[in-house]
Specification:
By secondary structure, the protein is an alpha+beta fold. The chain folds into two domains: 13-71 and 294-426, no CATH class; 102-281, no CATH class. It is built from 13 helices and 14 strands. It has helices spanning 25-38, 40-76, 106-115, 153-157, 169-173, 183-190, 232-239, 258-272, 288-331, 333-341, 346-383, 392-418, 422-426, and strands at 82-86, 121-131, 134-135, 138-139, 144-149, 161-164, 178-181, 199-201, 206-213, 218-219, 222-223, 227-231, 247-251, 284-286. The model is unreliable at 1-21 (pLDDT under 50).
């Protein structure tokens, strides 16, 4: 047989002790793995497309799951008895820009508070980041959030008081220069010293510290405690624009009455904002459920995009697998002839090459799944999510998908191998 001239690039059947036909399924898998090991570079290049395709699918859905877990935790931390009123949606959709958009002003929120009975409290919120604070020789970076609100702000935003007191109705009505510090801001300015009664200077005003909030932690890698809260009237007096757009967080008496409270707020706010009967609201009511639904719709779009990219990559990889399998059939023509001469039937050869194609795809699928889950869960470190997110449903879809691709793109090369005439195959040089 002139072995020196016709050495096979893949391990022949005789290299395996189980040489009877039909070959056991376990032996077919071992033979397929030996085939991969015998041509590592070719196998690696073939696997690359499968790995990238599966990776694209898994990393997108896992990353969305990680972010969704963080978003859900943040939203739920505000409690189930609160909802927010905004001039436009927090999560923008295709109709997010309203033609009749007008700011939700502090005057409108005050009227809403006067004309409703069910809310336990309504907390307006204005302000933002980029403020630098100074106290006792310590200066912060210009990254502190400064909010203006009223006495209902802690309950409406899921915070608790640690020391001192919070703002009062008189503080707001008289625009007093009082401030309640977040835990991180208090630590940066005063360390272990008691900040109560001390003076802190912001960019445009000086405040007296009346309270410190309990630490709440981070969300999306950003501290929720590097901030201060002052009377909203003092914020307007310092930074101007009392007619600016703001958010109002409404507190219902309990979870059972939240829908009734929502209905009352909608009715009152339609009158306040001049919405005529039959017209659509020119404001948004957002509960925990509506925010999660809005985020989920965006997340599904991201998932479908990642899955689409992965599918296109898998299609290209499948064509590559078919090409490689055709080359393999040509190179192993003599091996196939020997198998058939020893009694292998067409279905045995067909099954052997189909198993090899499927195993090739499954190995690539395993690498892609593990890589996608690993990379996406690194995001959890930055978002401070609890536990590892594994999209088991999509993992199952990925493995079923690569199995289908292995069969679909491997059936033609396998059929070609099965149809080879044993005599002609043994003569192949």
């Amino acid at each position: 047989m002139r072995d020196a001239q016709h050495r096979l690039p893949f391990p022949p059947l005789s290299a395996h002790p189980a040489s009877s036909f039909p070959m056991p399924f376990k032996e077919l898998i071992l033979l397929a793995l030996d085939t991969l090991r015998a041509s590592k570079l070719r196998a690696a290049l073939t696997l690359l497309g499968i790995v990238i395709g599966v990776f694209a699918i898994i990393v997108s859905v896992t990353a969305v799951g990680v972010i969704e877990s963080a978003v859900t935790g943040t939203i739920e931390s505000f409690g189930s008895t609160k909802f927010s009123v905004n001039a436009r949606p927090t999560v923008q959709g295709s109709d997010g820009d309203r033609v009749d958009y007008r700011p939700l002003t502090y005057a409108q929120v005050e009227l809403l508070d006067e004309r409703t009975r069910r809310p336990v409290g309504i907390a307006p919120s204005a302000g933002g980041g980029g403020v630098r604070f100074r106290a006792e020789g310590t200066v912060t970076d210009p990254n502190v959030n400064l909010y203006g609100s009223n006495e209902h702000w802690p309950e409406a935003n899921g915070f608790e008081l640690d020391r001192g007191r919070f703002l009062t109705d008189d503080d707001v009505r008289l625009a007093r220069p009082m401030i309640v510090l977040g835990a991180d801001l208090a630590e940066k300015l005063f360390g272990d010293r008691d900040p109560l009664g001390k003076t802190v200077a912001g960019d445009r005003a000086t405040y007296i510290v009346v309270g410190v909030l309990k630490r709440k932690g981070e969300t999306f890698g950003q501290s929720m405690d590097l901030m201060g809260v002052v009377p909203i009237t003092h914020l307007f007096a310092t930074y101007g624009r009392a007619d600016r757009d703001l958010q109002a967080n409404v507190i219902a008496a309990n979870a059972a009455t939240i829908q009734e409270t929502v209905d009352e707020v909608i009715g009152a706010l339609r009158v306040i904002r001049g919405v005529r009967p039959g017209q659509e609201n020119n404001f948004e009511i957002e509960t925990n459920e509506s925010l999660l639904e809005g985020f989920s719709s965006v997340a599904q779009g991201v998932q479908m995009g990642g899955a689409g990219i992965g599918l296109l990559t898998l299609l290209a990889a499948g064509i590559g697998i078919m090409n490689i399998m055709l080359v393999s059939v040509t190179e192993r023509t003599r091996e196939i002839g020997i198998r058939k001469a020893l009694g292998a039937k067409r279905r045995d050869v067909l099954r052997q090459f189909l198993v090899e194609a499927v195993v090739l795809c499954q190995v690539g699928g395993v690498i892609g799944v593990l890589g996608g889950i690993g990379v996406a869960n690194i995001l959890g470190i930055f978002f401070d999510t609890a536990g590892v997110v594994i999209p088991w449903g999509w993992v199952g879809v990925a493995f079923v998908g690569v199995t289908f691709f292995g069969v679909f793109f491997g059936v033609y090369p396998a059929a070609k191998a099965a149809r080879l005439d044993p005599i002609e195959a043994l003569r192949y040089e």
